[in-house]
């Protein structure tokens, strides 16, 4: 665990990465503590038409939306949706793509080639276009958004891990392990995977940002969880007809998305600098 | 060790060939790279056999084919009397513990994310049925044998010096108590003083564990120091072999002669005063007809372009592959 | 006493690293006469490559700090002269470089000929030094003269079929041929000093013999000085008139080659020669390890591994003394030998 402390120290010294980490932490805390932080927790489901489109005030920090609900409170609960979608979608993509990439990169036979060709086909289409197509045909719901995102994201991981695995196969210690007769699964799990894990961690972090953005885009297009779910993208879509007068309506979720994505990107960049093996070790 | 002279050799290689296909841009095969072209040798138990040659001679390929890293195109390999040419058919795991291979930098064979103790434990965990305490005991014995303290077992490779990493890499090979170790360029790129330490380590380990070595190197001074017998390779073929002092004092093949003439001699005459070998080895994908050395050989005659000489033992275990070596 | 061609005095270079400041060169002195081939011998960490690069002015700018010292060459201090003048007139022109791995000195996507002619465009002896704009045209007559000069040199370095070689790409020629090319290029600009950093270490021994023979002949014919940095004592023995030994950033001995190999004065030199493999002597290493330069030993940096070390050695670095004229050593307890003892 000394490496964890070392990483934490290095992270703390990189200002931008630290800032990013704080933003991510803010997101997580917001999502967890939403019921307590929200001023109008019931506004997720209830609406008060009399109060609609009121500007920011002491009672409503970010004003109210077209149904009179408190934008601030809905925003906080929206954080939960955001995190849920991001974590499950990215997690699933990683859990599918990494093993595929590992096996394909290790064996380098026709099975691997076939899997990589399939990945290439998926990657040839922009993720968002494919995600739209899938979500559209399945119907708007949070599960379908997650499904669409993971199905279009796993090929990226397969390709990445494939490339990293083939590189790792050239390392002397892997050759030595093969020559020693270490069984293949053991080599893949205990030798190759730990050594490419830093790459995976960095891309996962940055990937969260991208996934959140794509999820928001799907929500914006009406393909995400249906109302009254306070998903950020959908909120922005709702706000469109009331712009520019009800500026708070779009600004709040927009800034939230911006901060969260930036947070993950900065954190990911910082992690990349730290975990890059060239900068990591002193004595080489 | 003289009693062993009558015993069967520990390792026997017969007619070994390894041809790599040469392909053009479109993947069609345009020729063969004959990395090994009819190589035969025998290694006796307890000896150190040197395999020397310059780049492209095939010595590294020889080591890898014997080890099973590459499959031979033709020929046979026998280890302890057992045919091991086809690795998939022969019982593999028993073999691994008796025949080992050390890379040029044994330290690089260590996984940088594994503690040293774990790296040393791995071969035992896979190939033996020893229980935990027995494995710990063996690991302790080995790490002491290479001159490192047991406290190092808890360290990572990057926490120890390069020289110590090298020792750990060797220790890992020895945990399985092999009989034969193929050392591939173990002293390349090392500083002179470090080289001396490494060579001493090899000798100590040999005496302590009763090892046999195949020592692949391009450094003739080191080979002379360490080896009992030597085989000189040129473009995939052994051109001369025999007891070390005989080869060095009376080399018969013109290539061996040029190789020895090229070694600088501190305090002695200068090589560059009268060094005669010119040019470079021919393209290995298109070897000259007959003797492959004839294009650079000062003693080449017409017959050399027609006949491809094999190794001829002219007595005392000293063999050469030159048509004219027998002449006075 | 003729003026030395190159004179390095009191050079101190530190490298800034994650682990602290590494004192890579500790007040190093070195001088070289015209037409002399000086070997700079040392193991890893000795500082010989750093010294070679410091003279050429190609130390990594972000990590290297030149703390003090002077490098005099042809009447000017290279460390104090403006960088553009050094880059234009000296580097690649009056002082040229033959590296260890010539492959990485060539750009793999351009032909060898185009790269050589590009160098000749700026650095040939006929190039007008004060009009160094990149859009400057390459006058046809000068180009023709330079090309002839290059082809002649390729013939002199015994490259077969020089015109064909110019058309080839770097990966299409062998290591020995690339090194011959580097030597030709080093001579093409009529340099006075060639700095060679391990030029034959990566080559096979028979090719090394050919290259050393060539280098020796050409440099004596043209009166070019060579600073030959290497850890290969055999190569140094072949070609050097004088040998300077470095250990952990300090130069410890400087002697004519004949004396150096037969009767070295510094304990490190003696240990180094003794650790060469030899049937008679057996294998002797040097106990201990090369020091980490971030926190080097005080005084003479070899003292922790030296059998003759005393208190003075541990505190203050010895000054230069000369037991025999021309043979300099920095040691409080130098070995005194009869020159007939031979190290072989």
Question: What is the gist of this entry?
Answer:
The complex is a heterotrimer of chains A (284), B (328) and C (344). Chain A is 75% helix and 0% strand.
Strand content of chain B: 15-25%
Q: List SSEs of chain B in N-to-C order.
A: EEEHEEHEHHHEHEHEEHHHHEE
Helix content of chain B: 25-40%
Low-confidence blocks of residues of chain B: 1-5
Silhouette of chain C: globular
Number of DSSP strand runs of chain B:
12
Terminal residue distance of chain B: 34 Å
Please provide a written account of the structure.
The complex is a heterotrimer of chains A (284), B (328) and C (344). Chain A has 284 residues and is mostly helical. Chain A has a domain of 198 residues: MetI-like (MetI-like fold, Orthogonal Bundle). Chain A has 11 helices and no strands. Chain A is elongated, with a radius of gyration of 22 Å. With 328 residues, chain B is α/β, with parallel strands linked by helices. Chain B has 11 helices and 12 strands. Chain B starts with 10 loop residues before the first strand and ends in an 8-residue tail after the last strand. Helices cover 31% and strands 22% of the residues of chain B. Chain B is globular. Chain C is of the alpha/beta class and 344 residues long. Chain C has 2 domains: 230 residues, Rossmann fold, CATH 3.40.50.300; 85 residues, no CATH class. Chain C is 32% helix and 22% strand. Chain C is built from 11 helices and 12 strands. Chain C has an 8-stranded mixed β-sheet, with helices on both faces. Chain C has a 4-stranded antiparallel β-sheet with strand order 2-1-4-5, with helices on one face. In chain C, helix 7 links the parallel strand 7 and strand 8. In chain C, helix 3 packs across helix 4, helix 4 crosses helix 6 and helix 6 packs parallel to helix 7. The two termini of chain C are 33 Å apart. The mean pLDDT of chain C is 85. The chains are: A mainly alpha (284), B alpha/beta (328), C alpha/beta (344). Chains in contact: A-B, B-C. Chains B and C meet through helix 6, helix 7 and helix 9 of B and helix 6, helix 7, helix 8 and helix 10 of C.
């Amino acid at each position: 665990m000394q490496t964890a402390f070392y990483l934490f120290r290095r992270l703390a010294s990189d200002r931008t990465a630290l800032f990013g980490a704080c933003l991510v932490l803010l997101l997580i805390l917001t999502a967890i503590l939403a019921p307590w932080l929200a001023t109008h927790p019931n506004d997720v489901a209830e609406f008060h038409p009399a109060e609609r489109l009121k500007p920011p005030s002491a009672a409503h920090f970010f004003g109210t939306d077209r149904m009179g609900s408190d934008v601030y409170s809905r925003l906080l609960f929206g954080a939960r949706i955001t995190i849920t979608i991001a974590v499950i979608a990215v997690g699933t993509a990683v859990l599918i793509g990494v093993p595929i990439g590992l096996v394909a990169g290790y064996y380098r036979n026709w099975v691997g080639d076939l899997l990589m060709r399939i990945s290439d086909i998926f990657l040839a289409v922009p993720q968002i276009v494919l995600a739209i197509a899938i979500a559209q045909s399945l119907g708007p719901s949070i599960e379908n958004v997650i499904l669409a995102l993971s199905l279009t994201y796993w090929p990226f991981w397969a390709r990445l891990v494939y490339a990293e695995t083939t590189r790792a196969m050239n390392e002397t210690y892997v050759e030595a392990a093969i020559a020693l007769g270490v069984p293949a699964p053991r080599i893949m799990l205990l030798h190759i995977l730990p050594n490419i894990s830093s790459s995976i961690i960095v891309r996962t972090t940055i990937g969260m940002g991208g996934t959140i953005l794509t999820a928001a885009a799907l929500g914006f297009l009406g393909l995400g969880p249906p109302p009254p779910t306070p998903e950020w993208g959908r909120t922005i879509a709702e706000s469109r007809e009331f712009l520019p007068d009800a500026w708070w309506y779009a600004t709040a979720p927009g800034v939230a998305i911006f901060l969260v994505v930036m947070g993950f990107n900065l954190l990911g960049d910082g992690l990349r600098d730290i975990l890059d093996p060239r900068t990591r070790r002193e004595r080489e | 060790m003289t009693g062993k002279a009558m015993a069967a050799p520990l390792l026997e290689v017969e007619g070994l060939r390894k041809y790599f296909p040469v392909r053009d841009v479109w993947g069609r095969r345009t020729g063969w790279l004959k990395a090994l072209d009819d190589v035969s040798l025998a290694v006796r138990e307890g000896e150190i056999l040197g395999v020397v040659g310059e780049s492209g001679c095939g010595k590294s390929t020889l080591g890898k084919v014997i080890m099973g890293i590459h499959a031979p195109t033709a020929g046979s390999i026998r280890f302890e009397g057992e045919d091991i040419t086809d690795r998939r058919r022969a019982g593999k795991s028993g073999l691994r513990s008796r025949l080992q291979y050390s890379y040029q930098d044994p330290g690089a064979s260590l996984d940088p994310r594994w503690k040293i103790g774990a790296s040393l434990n791995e071969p035992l965990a896979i190939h033996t049925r020893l229980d935990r305490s027995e494995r710990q005991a063996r690991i302790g014995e080995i790490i002491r044998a290479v001159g490192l303290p047991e406290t190092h077992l808890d360290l990572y490779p990057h926490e120890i010096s390069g020289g110590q990493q090298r020792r750990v890499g060797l220790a890992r090979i020895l945990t399985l108590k092999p009989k034969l170790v193929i050392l591939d360029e173990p002293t390349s790129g090392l500083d002179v003083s470090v080289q001396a330490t490494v060579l001493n380590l090899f000798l100590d380990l040999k005496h302590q564990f009763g090892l046999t070595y195949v020592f692949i190197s391009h450094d003739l001074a080191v080979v002379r120091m360490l080896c009992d017998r030597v085989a000189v390779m040129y473009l995939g073929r052994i051109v001369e072999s025999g007891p070390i002092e005989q080869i060095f004092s009376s080399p018969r093949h013109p290539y061996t002669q040029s190789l020895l003439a090229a070694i600088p001699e501190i305090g002695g005459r200068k090589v560059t005063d009268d060094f005669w070998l010119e040019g470079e080895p021919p393209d290995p994908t298109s070897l000259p007809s007959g003797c492959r050395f004839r294009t650079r050989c000062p003693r080449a005659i017409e017959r050399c372009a027609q006949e491809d000489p094999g190794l001829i033992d002219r007595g005392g275990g000293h063999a050469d592959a030159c048509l004219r070596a027998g002449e006075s | 006493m003729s003026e030395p061609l190159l004179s390095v005095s009191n050079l101190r270079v530190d490298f800034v690293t994650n682990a602290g400041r590494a004192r890579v060169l500790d007040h190093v002195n070195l001088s070289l006469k015209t037409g002399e081939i000086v070997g700079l011998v040392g193991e890893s960490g000795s500082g010989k490559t750093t010294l070679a690069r410091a003279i050429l002015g190609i130390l990594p700018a972000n990590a290297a700090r030149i703390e003090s010292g002077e490098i005099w060459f042809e009447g000017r201090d290279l460390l104090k002269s403006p960088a553009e003048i050094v880059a234009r007139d000296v580097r690649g022109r009056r002082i040229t470089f033959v590296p260890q791995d010539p492959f990485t000195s060539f750009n793999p996507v351009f032909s060898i000929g185009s790269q050589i002619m590009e160098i000749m465009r700026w650095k040939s002896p006929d190039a007008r030094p004060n009009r160094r704009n990149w859009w400057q045209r390459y006058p046809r007559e000068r180009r023709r003269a330079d090309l002839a000069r290059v082809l002649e040199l390729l013939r002199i370095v015994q490259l077969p079929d020089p015109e064909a070689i110019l058309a080839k790409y770097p990966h299409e020629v062998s290591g020995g041929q690339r090194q011959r090319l580097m030597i030709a290029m080093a001579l093409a600009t009529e340099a006075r000093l060639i700095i060679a950093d391990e030029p034959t270490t990566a080559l096979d021994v028979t090719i090394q013999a050919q290259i050393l023979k060539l280098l020796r002949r050409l440099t004596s014919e043209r009166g070019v000085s060579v600073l030959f940095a290497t850890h290969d004592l055999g190569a140094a023995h072949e070609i050097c008139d004088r040998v300077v030994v470095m250990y952990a950033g300090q130069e410890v001995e400087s002697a004519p080659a004949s004396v150096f190999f037969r009767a070295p004065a510094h304990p490190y030199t003696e240990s180094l020669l003794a650790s060469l493999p030899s049937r008679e002597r057996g294998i002797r290493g040097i106990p201990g390890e090369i020091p980490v330069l971030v926190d080097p030993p005080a005084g003479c940096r070899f003292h922790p591994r030296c059998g003759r070390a005393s208190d003075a050695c541990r505190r203050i670095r010895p000054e230069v003394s000369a037991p025999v004229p021309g043979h300099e050593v920095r040691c409080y307890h130098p070995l005194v030998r009869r020159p007939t003892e031979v190290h072989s």
